[in-house]
Amino acid sequence: MNPHPTGPQERTDDAARERERARIARRQLRSPRSFASIVAALLVAAICLYFMFEAAMKSIGQDVWIKSPGQWWDWFAQLPRTADPVLLPLASLLLLLIGLYFLLQGILPGRKARRILPNDRAVVLVDHEVIAATLARRARTEANVSPEQVMVVVGHTLVDVNVRPTSGIRLRTDAIQRAVEDELVRNLVDPLPKVRVRISESGVVGQ
């Protein structure tokens, strides 16, 4: 018999802890959209302030700065008939792309340059820079080169390893790739990103 039976309350507590860990992980992995939000807010505020200024100038009988709101409306209404037939579609496409950019920024979650390592009791977060340093150390050990000759960039789906060999020494790309992949497995990185190793054509003079 099981000396520590798992009752309904314990299962409920375990599920609550899992939900809390998942919530913490999502919060730590997603980056805020502060830049896009600030830019969009500034654009909207600038447009509103401009039209308020033009309306105020017209209301006190002063000449408008550029155009009154009514003149702007007439200009937009006549734009399809007066605008250049080539320039108008290009400007419309540009506005569409800008709007699509802000829409996607608001809908799609941003991702920070970090990932979660498996752990049964806590949420373990590791920055990509830390993983890159570990992989660079393993790659330069395998290639027998100095730290300055290896550069590793870690992304969410790809690890890019760039190695500058020592002049006169031939390096094996497959051996370096297997070493880096083994280091990823040892560090419990999941899912495993693709590893790409590139050997520079220009070498470094050995000391």
Automatic annotation (TrEMBL):
Lineage, top ranks: Bacteria, Bacillati, Actinomycetota, Actinomycetes, Micrococcales
Residues covered by region (Disordered): 1-21
Residue ranges with Basic and acidic residues bias: 10-21
Keyword Transmembrane part of the UniProt annotation: yes
Transmembrane segments: 35-53, 86-104
Keywords: Membrane, Transmembrane, Transmembrane helix
Designated name of the protein: Alkaline shock response membrane anchor protein AmaP
